[in-house]
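Collaboration report, partner site 2.

Our partner group contributed sequences for two proteins of shared interest, and the home lab folded both. The records are reproduced in the order in which they were received, starting with the first partner submission.
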Amino acid sequence: MNKELIPGIAWAAGAIGLALGATAARKAGLIDGDTVVRLVIGFNGLMIAWFGNRMPKNFVPDARARQVARVGGWSMVLSGLVYAGFWAFAPIQTAVIGGCAAVLLGIAVTVGYALSLRGKANAA
């Protein structure tokens, strides 16, 4: 099995295990439904941050692609942590809007940086 595939499978298993455990805790009356939603969706933000942390560590042969991977990694880590923070502390409607905005901003930063590097390369 590909070594890059194993951590992704582990994150997926963790998400499924968290969802099942939180659902069982809700059925047992230990937590409410909002807490289940916050736990499971907040976990997604941590997963985004983890994958963002992995981005610059992957081998890319081109120097500009490595620059984009570093910026993309930072933007995804930060947006994933902001996303998880919204789901941990903000009201749910605010968490939906703010969390989605954080992830979209992280993607926009990465794409914008890649396009700016491409423009500089075409101009040179």
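Second partner submission, folded after the first:
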Amino acid sequence: MATTRWFNPPVPVSGTQFGMTYMVSNVEAAAEHLLQWTNRGPKWRLAVRACTAALADKATPQEARRCFRLAAIEEGRFRAALEGDD
């Protein structure tokens, strides 16, 4: 049975519909969001690698969270006003 790898705190990202925000709270959800994004720059590639490593238990969920957050900033989807740790 697969284990969910949780983020703490979740990473708020904008959705595809105007005004929609997703609170991405685990590695699996982060990986799904990354695959939907069109800009695939260096931070996106780093986040994909970190999520893949976390899913294989070769990185921590918090490392994947950090990389996903950076990719969200690069993509212009990060919702800083909604994040609790900044």
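Feedback sent to the partner group on the second submission included the following. The CA atoms of residues 17 and 50 lie 27 Å apart. The chain has a mean pLDDT of 90.
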